[in-house]
Amino acid sequence: MKKLRICAAAVCFSLLTGCAGASSSTPASSTAPQTTAPQKQEEVTVPELDGYKLLWHDEFSGTALDESLWNYEPHEPGWTNEELQEYTTSTDNVFVRDGNLVIKAIKGEKDGQTHYTSGKVTGQGKTQFVYGKVVARAKVPEGQGLWPAIWMMPQTESFYGQWPKCGEIDIMEVLGSNTGTAYGTIHYGEPHADQQGIYELKDGTFASDFHEYSVEWEPGEIRWYIDNNLYLTVNDWFTAAAGGDEREYPAPFNQKFFVQMNLAVGGTWPGNPDETTDFDKAEFLIDYVRVYRKPTYDVNVTKPEKHYREALEDGNFIFNGNFAEKEDLTDDVNWKFLLFEGGQGSAEIRDNMIVIKTENEGTVDYSVQLVQPDLPMIKGKKYRATFDAWADEPRDIIVCVSAPNAGWIRYLQDTTLKVTDKQTTYTYDFEMNEKNDPNGRLEFNLGHKGSSATVYITNVRVEEIA
To answer: Which positions are catalytic?
Structure first.
């Protein structure tokens, strides 16, 4: 979600060297932890999973971080994503309590300035593996600017190259400002691309109770679950140097990865803490981490073919552009209405138009958002986007065609327009100069523009032009 993370080795140094690629045969014994941990949690019965064998686990039932499984990874503030925290090796920031690993963010002072510390632990060089199922149970902190994550990076980044070429698997991320929503993501490329799933709780939040997050990583497919509910499946990715040939699929996700966990403070995605952030409660609790593996994996996989949406008979790539049909605006078919980062509102299709009401404009332009995904964008083609829009009173909105699976670049750049109380037709031409993409997305962004005036949209078209 419009964020950028740089691998550790890209910014400081590589902890390990050597080839990390998977061989054509992947028996479980080839990916056992390089350091055998003392079984300090013998009293815990770890559940078996059908088809899997337990590879390693940590129930955090001891008195301190098990350093046969985990490393502390210190970093100075601003190491990545413009984050504010210093990652330390202090047991004030990383410790075990009541059967949980606690990663705590602390607000203090240094050289007369506000100074944040927190913790980051990794399994690099100790528990790396290729393919398997990662299961973690955790409870996140609530508060503006807090950003807990459980994620995976390759043991040897240099095998395919620095981020994003090396690949990244985000098992879970939650923003402390919106703890009812969790994200699962992969990053890869170049050019940088990503795919992301969003899981929203119907009751409670990820901060009010523990939830189980898991990823099933197999050759050619990765699946994300929360509380055993599947919410994202990805089977199409690539890696290549910019302008170069792609590496053989399923690179880069065919090498050894390790699990890591951290609690960031501030940064380009969550924003910085404010006066509402309670650092006395800024604790990321992890109950357990368990990694399972199947006895064997079939690594002879092929990349799925891309499927491009066909235009309607009149050449329009937008389905239901005149809003003649009622739709479920919460699914991924045709139109979808979304709210983020404090945005509150509703959308309704009626009288051959969509009516978007804003109750709270939120803190970012996409806090109130209408989108249509799956637009086929072909390199070298020219396109025209047209639509009619008006509002109860003059106000600004933003229109664009974005690339959710290609680092959120823009095929039609973010364009701010002032709509009036008169129905007006807007037309924008653009040329597609990037890699072919079947997943372009038309966006109307109504958040954070200083107005909550109701907006009306109809006659939406995206078509190819000569």
So the answer is: 168, 173
